[in-house]
Specification:
By secondary structure, the chain is mainly alpha-helical. The protein has eleven helices and five strands, in the order αααααααββαααβββα. A three-stranded antiparallel beta sheet has the order 4-3-5, with no helix packed on it. It is globular. The N terminus is likely disordered.
């Protein structure tokens, strides 16, 4: 009798487990479908309106001479709509972004792609590598950080703070320089070069900081030090740095610089490339922005972002409370605020460095 009851119980548990898996698959598919429909309903009508408006403006101003590309081709409009939607759905299904993050990401990607394919590739490189870095050794990170999310699951606030400055710069780029891939040449195209390097700086800083914090904290067991006083702190502390973390910040920025350079060389007009100076310093600019951005982020985090250690669980928390031992920082900014300030600063610093390097 006991054996029969055990078999029945086991069978029931297996049936429930199979039902839960099927239900999760159904809801996951429905969520993806809702996301796809929502983004299509939102973005496609907007794209069509902007396309018609752009065509009308081009027709009205057809008698005037412009040094920039006023007309945005139908192919670019199509790519600007479909590619961000595809990546948003993929990221949502992989739990790299939640629903709000996916919707906001589509809008950001749409804006960047209209400005230049280079900006869109920067976004994709940051999003993909950052998500993979976040998932790397997630079991260990869960033990270190109180609010760790296994897949990253970025929401609209995180997308705004990491990519919002670049999207705003892309709008200015479209209005001031038009739509297209323009080589960096501060002598002939100062505005386009400044804005392009500014966008590169924001993505390189965001990617460098992500690589630095997500990889540097779990690859080596060496205890990090607080960047403001070089005293040892637990892993996961805001503002804690290590040699490997700083190195990964540079490599993450270098990757963004490399994707920016490769996409520009492949998509820009060959005549413009021949007239412009050599573009390979873009890679160095990306590494610089990743390195300096991660250092600035650590300095701000160590000073204005609270870090404490819970006595019982041992995890790092970002707000004071019961059984929490203060480690560093004041409870003024959260991680989103630190990222936003860092990206804005690097948007201002990077073009100046690039201008000096291209000279």
């Amino acid at each position: 009798m006991l054996l029969i009851e055990g078999e029945i119980t086991t069978t029931a548990l297996e049936s429930r487990s199979n039902f839960a898996k099927k239900a999760y698959g159904i809801f996951s598919s429905k969520s993806s479908a809702i996301l796809a429909i929502g983004t299509l309903v939102t973005v496609i009508p907007l794209a069509l309106v902007l396309w018609l408006g752009n065509t009308l403006i081009t027709f009205v101003n057809s008698d005037n001479s412009y040094s920039r590309e006023e007309f945005i081709s139908p192919t670019k409009w199509l790519i600007a709509v479909l590619v961000p939607i595809a990546f948003a759905i993929h990221g949502y299904r992989k739990n790299s972004v939640n629903f709000s993050g996916a919707i906001f990401g589509v809008m950001v990607g749409f804006t960047l792609a209209l400005g230049s394919y280079v900006f869109l590739i920067n976004l994709i490189a940051f999003f993909y590598t950052g998500s993979q870095a976040t998932k790397f050794r997630s079991e260990l990170k869960r033990k270190l950080e109180e609010n760790f999310k296994p897949g990253g699951s970025r929401n609209w606030v995180q997308v705004l703070c990491n990519c919002g400055p670049a999207a705003l710069l892309a709008i200015i780029y479209i209005l001031d320089c038009g739509s297209g891939e323009i080589p960096v040449d501060f002598d002939s195209n100062y505005h386009a070069s400044w804005l392009s390097m500014s966008i590169l700086g924001t993505f390189a800083a965001a990617c460098g900081d992500t690589w630095s914090s997500e990889l540097g904290s779990v690859i080596r067991s060496a205890q990090p030090v607080l960047i403001t006083n070089f005293k040892p702190v637990p892993r996961g502390t805001n503002g804690g740095v290590s040699a490997f973390g700083i190195w990964f910040g540079f490599i993450g920025g270098l990757l963004i610089g490399l994707t920016h350079y490769a996409t520009l060389i492949y998509t820009a007009d060959t005549t413009l490339l021949e007239r412009a100076p050599s573009q390979w310093p873009i890679i160095i600019v990306g590494g610089f922005a990743g390195l300096i951005g991660s250092i600035i982020d650590s300095c701000i985090g160590a000073t204005f972002q609270y870090s404490g250690r819970h006595k019982i669980t041992g995890v790092i928390v970002e707000h004071p409370g019961k059984d929490v031992i203060h480690i560093s920082g004041r409870d003024i900014l959260d991680n989103h605020g630190v990222n936003l300030i860092t990206n804005v600063l690097m948007a201002l610093i990077t073009p100046k460095f690039a201008n000096a390097l291209f000279l």
